Amino acid sequence: ASLELGPYRHFMQKEIHEQPRAIADTIEAVMGANAFVPELFGASAGEVLREVEGVQIIACGTSYYAGLTARYWIEAISGLPCSVEIASEYRYRKVVANPKQLVVTISQSGETLDTMEALKYAKSLGHDKTLSICNVPESAIPRASRLVYYTRAGAEIGVASTKAFTTQLVALFTLAVTLAKLQGRLSPEHEAEHLDALRRLPGSVQHALNLEPQIIGWAERFAPKQHALFLGRGVHYPIALEGALKLKEISYIHAEAYPAGELKHGPLALVDSAMPVVVIAPNDSLLEKVKSNMQEVRARGGELFVFADDDSQFGSSDGVHVIRAPRHVGVLSPVVHAIPVQLLAYHAALARGTDVDKPRNLAKSVTVE
Ligand code: G6P
């Protein structure tokens, strides 16, 4: 294994650093076509996607958070309604099916039992427009789906998903833009803009990876903590969820995420000087709202650890630590912000001496109920 690891200490660290390459490979077909065309999802995708009236996403774990992120893109870009559900909930619910919806399952392994069973259940309800976003060719879930988009992250060994997540995000973004085009909602200017955003993404992700030394400094302060709170708003709220999941999975620090606007409805009661609060605060339309949420935390003595970008326009001050990504990348910003929360979890776990690649009680692929 040490040979395969190269200069890295763990597969998770290696996989985090592979993300610029994994993303570049995953978007290669889009770049090659230089357009968002339905054929990216399979030969018959044109006729299937054209008729879609909405999207139902189903997944587990980190893949579910990719789905939650995609919902913002799908609704904002394509105008189609989108709901996202945890597979183990969907499969046991009396679902009111609408077969005109596209059912999208997201799975790194393609073998997660709950996701597979949820897909079978959807099909039994008459859903025949099914699409799998998957990292493992010819695994069970893509085989049971009509359309497929393979992420090209390469084998993911670390139990905590990293490169699978960001490649799922770019596949889902591609889906959102392709649906928009089929809906007649995509101007040529917007198509060119979205292509350009994708093309620049591997470079922006590399810039985020370069923040590692600063994040190591933060991780050392996190290591002795018992709890942490993650906040985000809008499309960055699922990134806060993913950051909390990563931290609890591998460092065993209890972490939870909240949409920052919901702080006052409960979690604010937990905030004191012992509770570090991580905030995803890029310069998007919700930044001013996030800033006032940060003041609510500061007023209760909470220590803030803020991931921002160069355009966010605030600096570190007493009790407020800021790490900045070099530039705001626009619509793909959640992909870039996934990187620092992965690195924070990794280095906090390292400082605590946990088994990063094989956290206790967890499995890479959950093929039992
Ligand atoms: C397990 C893994 C997670 C993963 C989840 C869903 O819990 O530890 O990293 O996100 O399963 O797996 P899938 O292969 O369906 O994406």
TrEMBL record:
<comment type="subunit">
    <text>Homodimer.</text>
</comment>
<keyword id="KW-0963">Cytoplasm</keyword>
<protein>
    <recommendedName>
        <fullName>Glutamine--fructose-6-phosphate aminotransferase [isomerizing]</fullName>
        <ecNumber>2.6.1.16</ecNumber>
    </recommendedName>
</protein>
<keyword id="KW-0315">Glutamine amidotransferase</keyword>
<feature type="domain" description="SIS">
    <location>
        <begin position="218"/>
        <end position="359"/>
    </location>
</feature>
<feature type="active site" description="For Fru-6P isomerization activity">
    <location>
        <position position="364"/>
    </location>
</feature>
<comment type="function">
    <text>Catalyzes the first step in hexosamine metabolism, converting fructose-6P into glucosamine-6P using glutamine as a nitrogen source.</text>
</comment>
<feature type="domain" description="SIS">
    <location>
        <begin position="45"/>
        <end position="185"/>
    </location>
</feature>
<keyword id="KW-0677">Repeat</keyword>
<keyword id="KW-0032">Aminotransferase</keyword>
<dbReference type="GO" id="GO:0004360">
    <property type="term" value="F:glutamine-fructose-6-phosphate transaminase (isomerizing) activity"/>
</dbReference>
<keyword id="KW-0808">Transferase</keyword>
